[in-house]
Amino acid sequence: MPELLCRTEKVEHVRNFKTEVRGLMDVDHLIQRSIIHRNMDHSHIHTILLTLFSELSSQFPRERFDLALFKNAVFSVSDRDARAPRLHQKLQSYSGTDFFDVNQTWIVTHAQLDGLKQSHMALATLENATNLGLEMEEARIVVLILSPSYEKHTKSAAEIARTFGTLLMNDSLRQSMTDAADDDQIRDLLTDSAKSLSQQMTIQINGVPIPDDDDDYEKDGKKSTCCPYYPFRGIMKDFRRRWASYKSDYVDGIKDRRSVSKVISSAVFLIFTILPTTIAYGMLNENNTKGMINVQKVILGQWIGSLFFGIFGGQQLLIISTSAPLSIYISVIYQVCQTNNWDFFQMYATVGIYAMGFLILSAVFQLASLMKFTTRSTEEIFSVFIALALFIKAIVAIVHVYTHGYLGCINGGPEAICDPAEPLLFMFLLFGTTWLSMTIISFRSSPYLSRWKRDLVSDYALPIAVLVFAFISFFGFSDVRKHQFKIFPRETDAYFIPFYNLPAAAQLPALGLSLPLAILFFMDQLLVTNTVDNKDNKLKKGSAHHWDLFVVGILNIGLSMFGIPWMHGALPQSYLHMKALSNVEDRLHNGYIQTVIVHVRETRLATLIAHLVMIPIYFFLVPYITVFIPTSIFNGVFLFMAFSSLTGNEFWERILLIFTEQRAYPPTHYIRRVPQRVIHQFTMIEFIQLVVLVAIGFAQYHYVEMVFPIVIAAFIPFRHFILPLFIRKQYLEAIDGKH
Question: Model-level pTM?
Fold first, then answer.
C-alpha cells in the first residue's frame, strides 16, 4: 500500500566560530571522545549509521542507547525498507549559484534520543565515493550526531550538526580527512580548522566590526568624516528632521479605521495609566511638602506640560510626567528652606530656572551626543529600577494600611483607626485590579473571537479593570473606610512666583542644588528617549534628542515660575504608550513564544487627546475621583505598569535565565555567542548596579538621594572602562551592544 512522504527543507546559516561561542565548545567537548571509523567499505547508508551507532553504544556502556528509538529518530520510514532508507534530518552544503546545488560528498545527520546523558559524535570516511541515495551519490564522509532530548537549544543535536557541517564545507579539509593516516589526525584536522575559522571570522554587531581584547582596532582605512561643529547644530538638525514628518504625526493616526481605533484605545489607556501615577506623585509631594505641592498641582502640570510637549516635542511617543526622583528632589529643597527659613516657592523656582539653564546649554552644545556611549544595560537597569519603585510603592501602601487599620485593633489603638476590613478590602482591590488587567491584556493570544476583536478587548484592559473594581468598591463596600487624597483650594494651584525676591545668601545654595537636578533631567530624559527609540521598536521617523532637551528646558522654566511640579520623559508610561500604538505578534521560534512589535503608529494624537480630556477632569471631576476610585486601585495600576514594563527587558529575562532549565532557554542571539557562565556573570554585575541604585534611590537621608543621577551617569564609564577588565569585549558587545 503506497504511503505519503512529507519532506520539509530549510536553509541553516553557517556557524560563525567567533560570534557563536558554541562552535569551538562543540568541537572541544566532542572531538576527543568521538568515534572515528576510517575507510569504511559499506555502500549502504542504513548499514553505515547502524555501525556507527553500535560502536557508540560499545564505547559508552553507561549510556542507554536504544536501537528502536534510534531507528525511529534517524530514518523517516524506519527500517522496513532497508534497501532505500530515507533520513529524517540531513545537513549538507548548498549553493544556489552552482549547477549542482547540493554538495553530495558529505552528509551530517542528527537526532535527539531519550536516555542519553550527554551528546555524542561518530564520523565515518568511506573508502571510495559511494552512492548512498538521493542527493548522496558521491558520499565520502558521514557524520552522526546524537544528543539528549532534554538538552537546551544551543546544545541540541541540530546545533552541533551545524557546527560540524560548517567545518565540512571546506574542500581541503575533507580531502585531508579522507587521506588521514589515523583517527587522531582527523581529530587534529577538525580542531585546527575550527580554531582557524574562529580567527578568520570577525564579529559584527549591527554590521559594525568589533575587535577582540587582543585585536588592534582599525577602521579599515576609512577616515571618519564629520560635519563642522557649531552651537545649536544638533537642535537645528533635529528640528528639520522632525518638521519633515510633522504633518504625518497627525495624519498617521487617522489614515485608516484600525489607526483611529488604536489612537482612541491608546488615549483611554493613557488616561487610566497617567492619572493614577499623577495622583500618587501628588500624594507623595503633599506628604513631603506639607501640602504646598499637592495632587491638584501635579494634575495641572501634567496636562499643561504634556500638551506643550505633545505639540512642540520631537519624539511624539514620549510621555512626560513628574517622577519619584523629582519628588525626592523637591523634598530636599523643602527641607533646605525649612532649615534656613527661606521661602519654599522662591527657592523652588530659582533652582528650576538655574537647572533648566544648564539643560538648555547641554542641548545647544550637543551634549546629548554623549549618550551614544550608553548601552542597553544602562537603560534596562533604569527601567527595572522604575518597575521596582512602582512595586515598592504598592507594597509600602499595603503595609501602611495594614498597620493603621488592623494592628491598631491588636495594639489597643483608638476605635477610629481600628478597622480590620480596610486592609482586606485594600488588598482585594489592589491585586484584583492587577489580575484583571493582566488577564484581559493576555486575551490577545487566546483562541476566542476574531483577531481584531481580541486586539480591541486587550487595548482596553486597564480601563476595564479600573472601572470594574471601582464599581465593586463603591457599590459593594460603601460602608468600609477607604483611603482618599485631600482636596485643596483651587486658587493655590498656580500663581506667579517672585523668584527674584530670593535672598542673595540663598543664590549659591540654589545654584548648587540646580546642577545635580540638571544631571537628573539630562540622564532621565535621554534614557527614556533611548528606550523608546530602540531599533527593535521599528520606529521610522527618527529621534530628536537635542530638540527634546531644549523643549523640556523651556517648559520647566515656565512650570518653575508658577510653582508647578517639574516634568520630563517618564518610564514606563512612554514605553507603554508606544506598545499601545503598535501592532504586535506572538511568534513561535524553537518552542519559545516571542512577542514582536510589527508596526508602530508614530502619531501625536493619542497623547494630545488624553491630556485634553484631563482638562475637564482637573476642573470638574477631581473631587469625585477621590470618592469613586480609592487609592488601592491606583496602586493596582502601579503593579500592572511594573509587570508590563518588564516585558522585553533583556536584563529581567537574564535574571529569569538563572532559574530556568537549560533546555527552556529562549533562542536569544547572545545565548549562541556567549558562554552561559559569562551571561550569568554579567547579569550579576547588572544586579549589583541595580542594588546600588535602589540603596541610593530609597535612602532614608534625602541628601544621599541627590546622588542618584550622578550614579546613573557613572554606569556609562563603568561599562566601557571597568567591565571589559572582567569580561571579553566581544562577549560584552554581543550581550550589551549599542542600539
Answer: 0.69
